[in-house]
Amino acid sequence: MTLRATTSQTVGPFFSIGLERLTCAELAGPGVAGERVTIEGRVLDADGVGIPDAVIELWQANSQGKYAHAEDPQDKPVEAGFQGFGRIPTDEDGKFRFTTIKPGAVPGPDGKLQAPHIAVSVFMRGLLRRVVTRIYFPDEPENGDDFALRLVDAGRGGTLIARKVPGVDGLLKWDVIMQGPGETVFFDC
Amino acid sequence: MNYPPGYRRAVAGTQPDYLHSTYKSSLKRAPSQPLVYLPHTLSEITGPVFAPETVNVKACDLTRQHSGEPLGERIIVSGRVLDEDGKPVRKTLVEVWQANAAGRYRHKVDQHQAPLDPNFSGHGYAMTDGEGRYRFITVRPGEYPWGNHHNAWRPAHVHFSVFGPAFATRLVTQMYFPGDPLLPFDPIYNCTADETARQRLISAFDWESTIPGHALGYKFDIILNGREATPMEE
Which of A81, B24, B86, B140 could form a disulfide with A29 if both were Cys (CB 3.0 to 4.6 A apart)? Predict the structure, then answer.
């Protein structure tokens, strides 16, 4: 028997009614190991206008590069207080902000490690199915050899790498540009 | 290190394109660049797992979240979450939200001139059981107007959010009702090219889940991407 996956539909403008309960912008509880990082940015439309009715979901490994999931075969510990899931709605200006720990490198194809990254889904009114992207970290030597970054045209890979904020430790900026100049790279996932 | 196989991709035409010109909100929000094909890695074949909570009757009975009963026609919405091979997706989180019987959402952005119902919030959640089953008790949501085009009305619908076993299986969709006369005119329902795929968004009236003297039953199965047969590294 082969069924077909159900068709996606937009979350619409009123998703907070159903999705608010699991809002989580602090991914790492107290005592979770790893380098704390705050990432903030905006979700922008083709005119550069902030999108106030979007929601971002995050999925990441812990600082050891271990996912809190039964199918992660690595012999590494999961941590109490760290699930790796985040859900953050945008505000009226399209802004979002979350705090987490920087994930460790995780296994990729061909026995190589992937550079540290956070898997991202973005949902919004007007978007009939989610977009999938990734957040990578600046100044990461492994970025140059990361298999997913190497799939991306050279001129666009920067949209996947968060930017440092001069003079502010632990804060990174990362925007989601839905369409037009500087459009974020989205993956077929 | 080897890791388990990835998930199958959508069959052409069975998922919406981002840009759907009759759905105005998509015009400035749809990506214009082609998607970059991402082979599934450990990051995509894992995903958030939510602990099964102690049974919370109020979470899956939207008619019992307040002191009184909501207005409208009480209904049972139930079904199974399955993968494309028909295997149940067990212990996965299903979230729902909807308008009240008058077609009004409890949300500050909804300015439709229809009454709020003090006894209806319009949200619920459930974990699927060992057979992939879920069940909600709610009221039939009302149709409501929206600003997409002249005299635009959304057909009655319930929003569904389902996680499944992996980041790759995440799905948000809408469930419709059989025989709704607004379906042919709704750009959101009609965003998908494949007619059969669209029709799978319509629930079926169901005698089995109908409770005599109490509530009609509607059945809505949700299918998530199936597993690739062979590990991606072979």
Answer: A81
DSSP for B77-137, written as a single string: EEEEEEETTS-B--S-EEEEEE--TTS--SSTT---SS---TT---EEEEE--TTSEEEEE
Q: How far is B31 from chain A (nearest CA, A)?
A: 5
Which range of residues forms the domain containing residue A116?
16-177
SS3 assignment, position A62: coil
Q: How many domains does chain A have?
A: 1
Active site annotation includes B214 = no
Query: Domains (ranges, CATH) in chain B?
Result: 24-224 (2.60.130.10)
pLDDT digits (tens, 9 = 90+) for A169-181: 999 999 999 999 9
In the stretch 79-138 of chain A, residues with CB closer than 8 A to chain B read: 83-85, 106-111, 114, 117, 119, 121, 123-132, 134
The answer, as to whether pTM is greater than 0.80, is yes
Cβ contact B43–A110 (<8 Å): no
Q: What is the ipTM of this complex?
A: 0.97
